[in-house]
Amino acid sequence: MREFVAARRGELLADLSEWVRIPSVSADPERSSDVQASAEWWAARLREAGFPTVEIWPTAGAPAVFAEWPSDDADAPTVVVYGHHDVQPVDPVELWESAPFEPFVRQGPHGEEIVGRGVIDDKGQVLYHVYGLAAHLATTGRTSPAVSLKLLVEGEEENGSPHFRQLLLDRRDRLGCDVVVVSDTGIFDRATPSVVVSMRGMVRARIDLTGPDGDLHSGQFGGAVPNPATVIARIVARLHDADGRVQLPGFYDKVVELTPQQRELVERLPFDEAAWLQTAQSRATYGEKGQTTLERIGARPTAEVNGIWGGYTGPGGKTIVPSEAHAHLSFRLVADQDPGDVGAQLEAFLGALRADGTIPDGIGLALTVDRPGVRPCSTPMDHPALGAVVRSMQKAFDTDEILFTREGGSGPEADLEELLGPVLFMGVLLPDDRIHAPNEKADVELLLKGAEAVAHLWADLGSTAV
Ligand SMILES: [Zn+2]
Questions:
Q1: Element spanning 37, H or E
Q2: Does the domain spanning 201-255+301-369 belong to CATH 3.30.70.360?
């Protein structure tokens, strides 16, 4: 397996370079023909790889690519592999060491790296599936995979997947499966191969306060009318208690606490807080009392003030009582919280602040909640396919110990789980790959490990009852 994959190292890098040269930035309307070209490139590559069915699925936005290769084994499980072919914008472009869409290979501190926008997020992680499948077929002598394979590679992930849920609903009859494998995540670090087992959900909200109809002279009127800037500060100050717990009524009701065994698994990760703080560019950690940093990120829900503004913010001073004030908030959710509950919880929270006088008469309030929000998503720890993922990673990384990580971020995985089935994560991205930032890179050796792991996975899942 390893030899088969290693022999194709140059071919994989050439393929990846060709694909990365297509600037498929989904957030930029001027790049929409490039996103289309990227879909076509990938579709052509899949046909070349032997997929009997390859289709470009248009959406109201950018196209997705679907491919299918059924197994000849009648009782083989069906797997949907999810990834995306669009990429993040490249600015600030002056911080790139070379042109972002002219990928190049260089010797990094830990081996060869390929640098360019999308090399790991997510084109590299999608591409290794072609090589993994080829390795699976070659090393088993099969003419069809041991699992019925469906690949769904969307074109709008970096733009918030605005049409992805509708795509899943429209194409549900084509996407039936036993499990979903997501290849858009990574491992804990180079020395600690691991498997992601959960991602958080998210809800965003905005609060707009109004006071007097116009800004007022703070001498003539200040101290005698309510000030919306003061009130917005009071509201956000009440979001957490002194222990860092979110104060929306019922916020924690559906939170599934980690079991002692799951906490122990988190503790096993070789977390270096000093290094993490350096990455965070923060002087200290802070959060919900009684939780470790990794738990706070991966296993606990949060409320965050993303921005707060109002009144005069320019140079010098301006002695006014402002007429309005605003805040952007976001909430990260964990299993089994429902994003649909957060709006009502926020309304109840603000209603209580109105009742106790924190939001006084004379202050108008508008709450806007982005619905439906994103649900949290997690792999059932006792799912037999998770065992297959772990065994495949063990083989690819020559280790007995594969740890589990919990992602703090949120994505379309929750829709996959809700509409298609249990979601498993298999990815080889590194925390220092600088995704979404200048000089994004992929560790070439890890791309090959990804191909290897996938090849093991199809063979293993083919004989696992899922
Ligand atoms: Zn991605």
A1: helix 32-49
A2: yes
